[in-house]
Amino acid sequence: MKIFELFKSIASTDSNESAGPVQYLIVGLGNPGDKYVNTRHNVGFTVLDVFANKYGADKWKLKFKSLYADVVVNGKRCILLKPSTYMNKSGEAVIEAMNFYKIPIENVIVVCDDITLSPSRIRIRIKGSDGGHNGLKNIIYLTGENTFPRVRIGVGAKPHPDYDLADWVLSNYKKDEIPLMEAAFDKSVEAISLIVDDNINKAMNMFN
Description:
This protein is of the alpha/beta class and 208 residues long. It has a single domain (20-207), classed as Rossmann fold (3-Layer(aba) Sandwich), CATH 3.40.50. The chain has helices spanning 43-55, 90-101, 134-143, 165-169, 178-196, 200-207, and strands spanning 24-28, 61-63, 66-73, 76-83, 108-114, 122-125, 150-154. The protein has a seven-stranded mixed β-sheet with strand order 2-3-4-1-5-7-6, with helices on both faces. α5 (178-196) packs antiparallel against α6. It is globular, with a radius of gyration of 16 Å.
């Protein structure tokens, strides 16, 4: 399935919701609104849509200052979270969901863009700094922790040094980049599934 034709096919039933406790929070970072759909900075949202489609997630609902969906991955109940706070306040949504489900920071998986990686590249880390990413920065600031796994997805560097960074990350992909990004989204979904299955080292060995 082509990633950029995905949105109309997302599952819309509640049949996958589990009665068991939530074990993981999978957070895709991005900005809400139609004008940001499929932009580089919204790669986290797109990956969660791909993830939801693969695992038959229930319909997206509003809570935790976010759109969220319930899904079972490898027998474990997970919440997919797309904060609607805009990127630099992503931590507000994360904190609300963490507190509600009593999820430890080590079980919060964050998916975001990375301008230092070329399209199709992903980088997985168990913990670390924000690396200059405002979404990660706010999550670390509000939780007081940086010990959460993250999947960073390459969206390419600015075309030249004088190019405005905000304009770049809010731009759409070029035609020749789309198949590369689709491959990156598929790899990211597989990596997240491995992390949920307690195989983060395997994910890093496979994809870093």
